[in-house]
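Appendix B. One record, verbatim.
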Amino acid sequence: MDILTCERSEGDCPVLIDLHVHTSRYSSCGRATPEQMLAAAIEAGLGGVALTEHNLVFPDTEIAALRREFPQLLIFQGIEITSAEGDDYLLYGLRSAVEHEREDALQRGVPGERLVHRAHELGLAVVLAHPYRYGDQVPAFLEHEPVDGIEVMSSNILNYAHGRAVSLAERLGTWVMIASDGHAPEALGIYALRFGRAPCDERALVRALLKREFSLYVNPDRLSTRNAEIAANREAILRLIDEGLDDATIRKQIPGVSGVILRALREGLDVHRPGSPEQLGALVAFTRAGGNG
């Protein structure tokens, strides 16, 4: 088992952890290096991150080098796998359970039900990433082979998808997770999970997730800033859409606007990022009813 850096013993260092982070090294959509993302995480007040590159577990040797460079940060190896149906699943604990490259069931393009079932056989924690981001459907098999958690807030879960994601978690009886899904430094620090006990290795992280030993964290100032940026660009984006410009052209003219926001604006959907006091209050009520421990 790979022991992570923690100044104190597990149980003595409460910590904020972002469990959904990408970098430009192994995710084509990433816009910053691992070093830039980790430095931004520290600046944002995070105590840990999980690097969840698309369809690839960050190599052990490179993770070890990053842990030496950033000893004040817990750095976990996660993965975001795209299933045959096009849905994305976040897996945690894989490196401590099995060599990923030898697991045919945990590869891109595998049917989602097979992927989730095998992950559970290995004792991994599985989260459905950004449901309803691209459409109205979620995998039907979740009714009898549910994931452990549902991501309900991130930089790629806007208000139009948030409520439905929470309803899905309620129906399936899973816990809810919030994370940045950060592809650039400015995304970090808005959403995180607060662990009362710092999980100092991969297995401890999985144990804490499955036991629901965490609470949800939103930084209202960072959230307000990002939503203000969306509001400031909204009319300009709508004008360019009306002019018939495609997404690539719009993104060149208005740097930083995501494809998710563009698609939502084209469809007349609410593009603000969730995390209002009312939404958080609803999640608190949900967790007290059994959703998160």
